Amino acid sequence: MRNSFYEYYGLSAKEVDKLWDDAIVVFDTNVLLSLYRLPLDARNEIIAVMKGFKDRLWMPFQVGYEFHEHRLVEANRPIDSLRCLIDRFDKFNEDIEREFSRNPYIQNFKYIKDSLKSLRGRVEKKTKEWIEACPDMFRDDQVLSELTSLYENRVGESYDETRLKEIFENGEQRYANNIPPGYKDKGKEDGNRHRFGDLIIWFQILEKAKQSNCDIIFVTDDEKEDWWEIYKGNILGPRHELIIEFRNSVNDHLIGFYTTERFLSYAKNKKKGGVSIKQKTIEGVKSSEILDLDYFLGATSEPGQFSMNSLYSKYWGLLGESEPDRFSYLNKLDSYLLKDNLKKSSSNNSIVNLKNNNDSLSSEDEKLSNGEDDCDIKDNDNQTK
User: How deeply is 367 buried, as exposed, middle or buried, from its count of CB atoms within 10 A (0-12, 13-18, 19+)?
Assistant: First the structure.
């Protein structure tokens, strides 16, 4: 029965091993562009893994086209977001004052206000340093340089206008019947080349597999239903239609679909790529959400849309019961910015934890000033460049 319904069963362990030993590796546009949004150490690890597969890398022409079309926007997005940090910090301070300045159980709100003001000054100073250290992406794009070298003579041919017109006409029929991939993009209004971009990439992958008589590993962070079978919010595997279409187009060959997270996990477990992969790097590509302060400085928010509150959402419940967590997390930011001066400083400038009284607040400030903070946060300015 497995042979009759192979699309439902996934790959066997033997087939997976075959893929990882021999398959051509194709990264989707979104994976390449995401390199701009990662901290430098994570970015460098992923590029090192890609170099380990250099002899097996191949880029569909459409991926290269989309990458160059969107490169400058994505490359500058973290820098633009960083420029918005102070404005968003001020908005956060205003929210704190509005919500808590009249709380009858806060005995000294001026202490909170002065502490936030002091912290703001340090954040602004550090932010200016980070912005000045940011590269000029028009002249110094390290991601572009690395990818240009990696994919030298490893890019597919472009389609002429006749072939593109055929794909657009075919795509209209496929999208009307929700045939994957790409139909979730049918509402895009930035031209057929983008509207049918996923379909073009898919056809170019099929043609590469046929021409080179090879298996394919396809890595994409597009988690929409026009690539994946999704059940109750969980990705079960690639769409069955894609497996069938690949099998019918490329006899006796395999295709494996991976998100970046799963690809790195397999590479780590199978010791592929010739580099050690940190678990933190794997976890850091799961989502564009900011999980900790090390990733905070590589924020991926839209310019002008950065929200301080979003940083704490994972630590909040309802306001009131979990207010202390809010300030505890801000305390981590405070200690991060003060790290170089903690042992020298005698000032009481840390952000308060509302569940403590004023005496214990002073005690906490004294601990921070003596370098006794228990937050394990590394000061690595290079992550933010």
Answer: middle
Q: What is the pLDDT of residues 312-322, one digit of tens each?
A: 443 333 333 34
CB atoms within 10 A of CB 130: 18
User: Would you list the domain boundaries of the chain?
Assistant: 14-60+156-284, 84-135+301-384
Q: Model's pTM, two decimal places?
A: 0.70
To the nearest 10 degrees (0 to 180), the angle between helices 197-212 and 61-83 is 130
The pLDDT confidence band at residue 292, using thresholds 50, 70 and 90, is very low
